[in-house]
Amino acid sequence: MAAIEMRNIVKEYGDGFKAVNDVSLDIADGEFMILVGPSGCGKSTLLRMIVGLEDITSGDMVIGGERVNDKEPRDRRLSMVFQNYALYPHLTVFENIAFPLRLQKGVTEDEIRTRVHDAAAMLELNEHLDRKPANLSGGQRQRVAMGRAIVRAVNAFLFDEPLSNLDAKLRGQMRTEISRMQRRLGTTTVYVTHDQTEAMTLGDRVAVLRRGLLQQVASPRELYEQPVNMFVAGFIGSPPMNFLPAAVSGDRLKLPFLEVAVPSAAAGKVTDGQLLIAGLRPDHFEDAALVDPAKKATGVVFRARVDVTEWLGDSQYAYIPFEADQEITRQLADLAAELDSEALRTQLIVSIDATSRLREDQDA
Ligand code: ATP
């Protein structure tokens, strides 16, 4: 196991395009780090530079205290699990898992057998060791790929969207297994995904990338509650955060259909007359009829017309139109809730940094 340190990492392709642009990121020994961002943001490129499948244009990649920029992938002692599993079709499950051990010098047949059986036991593959990959389900194949990754002691596990070929149910199941396995082995892990749920549930910390630039590195909770800019605020959370134009008027904040006190987190950072963008999560709205009276006293009650509601089984969302073509999304706490009587929680996220950074984002 080892810490991974990235110092000002740049990946520039031939045409001068920077797929990864000056990324510095420290991953602690034993940490589970998620790299997330929209398609093309550079997350796979970054992962491939850690493992050595991609040359680093500039910057330092340090694994376990050692600069590895010029080290061959096999000398970095890392295990990578790919989206397409990359299993050998002509080899049995046993031999697929044993493969990395056979490449190592001096591992005895007994040791190989013990280690393969240990890995297979952890992944519930014991009964399938004699099968070929073609005779396995998608989930079992994914487990074999993981077995191959964990069979030898390595500095870190690297996962590149390992669950994206599985159906939703299996994805959920495998997510739990990966999480359990990582906790049990305590191995440093870097996991690339564009899946919100994986990003928010799997990692100790999440690094959000956009167009090759690192936006924020934080715990899932911190990302959700204190996004540093509008991109992170809008990317994390589903349905996404509502963005509303707002204007500061004394100690009040005026939004299109309601007015609230400037939230305490923003007090002192805003000036009278300033125009901002306020971010409200769908779950920041509650039904006035259902909120306890104490909360209601501190909230802002307003009435709104609900356009469409969406029922997702465990939650329900309402879409409330405002102005010409804009709408906000809110979560309904109670399926039987009255739709036109609503309260807004006092906890109102206003992304003050967002307004200034928005301009930078748009230029980028
Ligand atoms: P996805 O989720 O779609 O896999 P990603 O965030 O993993 O996206 P990367 O695969 O890292 O994105 O690619 C980052 C950017 O670099 C993309 O714009 C991609 O088109 C570009 N890119 C990747 N490989 C090359 C290459 N060999 N030559 C030129 N550009 C490349």
TrEMBL record:
Single GO molecular function: ATP binding
Alphabetized PROSITE patterns for the sequence: ABC_TRANSPORTER_1 (PS00211), ABC_TRANSPORTER_2 (PS50893)
Signal peptide location: none
InterPro entries for the chain: AAA+_ATPase (IPR003593), ABC_transporter-like_ATP-bd (IPR003439), ABC_transporter-like_CS (IPR017871), ABC_transpr_MalK-like (IPR015855), ABC_transpr_MalK/UgpC-like (IPR047641), Mo/tungstate-bd_C_term_dom (IPR008995), OB_MalK-like (IPR040582), P-loop_NTPase (IPR027417)
Record's keyword annotation contains Cell membrane: yes
GO BP, sorted A to Z: carbohydrate transport
GO cellular component: ATP-binding cassette (ABC) transporter complex, substrate-binding subunit-containing
Domain of life: Bacteria
Keyword Nucleotide-binding: yes
The protein, known as: Carbohydrate ABC transporter ATP-binding protein, CUT1 family
